[in-house]
Design goal:
Layout lengths: L21 H11 L8 E3 L1 H7 L3 E5 L9 H11 L2 H5 L2 E4 L3 H13 L3 E6 L4 H9 L3 E6 L2 H15 L2 E3 L5 H17 L5 E5 L4 H13 L4 E7 L4 H8 L21 H10 L2 E5 L1 H15 L5 H11 L10 E5 L6 H8 L11
Helix pairs in contact: 1-8, 3-5, 3-8, 5-6, 8-9, 9-11, 12-13
């Protein structure tokens, strides 16, 4: 991510994928148990027919805060010494990381300040505020929000929690894959929505050592394809800041993010905005699942044929469900659709 030259996040400095350990994911699973929901893993008849084999959806949209981000946020804050937590927590986020941080900070009774871009979904801003965190939405885009958050944390001696990096955060995200493996030990393919790489890194850190035959496929929108373009080029490629339904996957990656992709991904697919919108509607129609754009990318990749052929049994992580009501009603073709009971 783009940051001021005077401010560097130690979570990304010197990051090595090889430093990630499956034991950290196991420890995170124990640490967050009882505070984070074990989400459903359901077989999708429609997707299984397309793949000609069993395909399951890991419904992180049913997580307490509406996304997998709570796992890493809670594990990170729980891992900090009490005196460090007391100095305050600062985070940058497209929205879901911020909601997770706000929830965990409220649990530990520590102050939190969250920086989001002006384009962040209102439902995510409302979630951050509802959990008592201070919200800053003055920055024009995700990378600017991250830069401002890091400066703010440094000036106040608070702890900045990167949305994608930090071993405790990555280990927390890896508990998604740990739960999947416990139910599908012969998992052939895991499909992960990819933004900055935190969920991908966490899942790969447990999949690679415990299930080396499992292929890991990434999914992005064409407007958030920093990882896909960088992987294809073999070096970091900067992408334009474009409006997208998959705002949770937006932003640049850096060398640390590219290293995650190079070690964790077997393949990565990109899908159009229209295909993401169609997947949101399909998930509602077929599974009664309210899903945001970033959370629907993996499903869109299979529905569109971008991930064909897909080795099965396969699991697709539906990573989040925090979508503004007006957008959801427009895409899903329904009015007054219920809000998830988790909010």
């Amino acid at each position: 991510m783009t940051t001021p030259s005077s401010v560097r996040d130690p979570a990304t400095a010197g990051f090595k994928f090889s430093d990630l350990r499956p034991t950290d994911v196991l420890a995170a699973s124990r640490r967050i148990e009882g505070f984070v929901r074990r989400t459903p893993l359901v077989r999708s008849t429609g997707l299984s027919e397309i793949a000609r084999g069993d395909v399951y959806l890991k419904l992180e949209n049913e997580q307490i805060t509406g996304s997998f981000k709570l796992r890493g946020a809670f594990n990170t804050i729980a891992s900090l010494p009490a005196e460090v937590r007391a100095r305050g927590i600062v985070a940058s986020s497209a929205g879901n990381h911020g909601v997770g941080i706000a929830y965990a900070a409220r649990h530990f009774n520590v102050p939190a300040t969250i920086f989001v871009p002006r384009t962040a979904a209102q439902v995510k801003r409302d979630g951050i505020a509802a959990f008592g965190a201070t919200l800053d939405a003055t920055q024009p885009h995700y990378d600017a929000a991250m830069a401002a958050a890091m400066v703010f944390a440094e000036e106040r001696g608070a702890t900045f929690i990167n949305p994608c990096f930090g071993n405790a955060l990555i280990a927390g995200q890896g508990t998604v894959a740990l739960e999947i493996l416990s139910e599908i030990p012969d998992l052939a393919t895991l499909v992960v929505n990819v933004g900055g790489g935190g969920l991908l890194a966490g899942c790969a850190s447990i999949i690679r050592p415990l299930s080396p035959s499992t292929r890991i496929a990434g999914a992005q929108s064409v407007r958030t394809a920093a990882m896909a373009r960088s992987m294809a080029a073999g070096h970091v490629v900067e992408i334009d800041d474009e409006p997208t339904m998959a705002e949770g996957l937006a932003g640049q990656i850096d060398e640390a993010g590219l290293e995650i992709g190079q070690h964790a991904l077997d393949t990565i697919a990109t899908v159009s905005e229209e295909q993401i919108g169609a997947a949101i509607a399909w998930l509602w129609r077929e599974h009664d699942a309210r899903v945001e754009g970033a959370g629907a990318a993996g499903t869109a990749a299979l529905l569109s044929g971008a991930l064909a052929p897909l080795a099965t049994p396969a699991a697709i992580i539906v990573s989040g469900g925090n979508i503004d009501a007006s957008r959801f009603e427009q895409l899903a073709g329904t009015e007054g659709a219920r809000e998830p009971a988790t909010r």
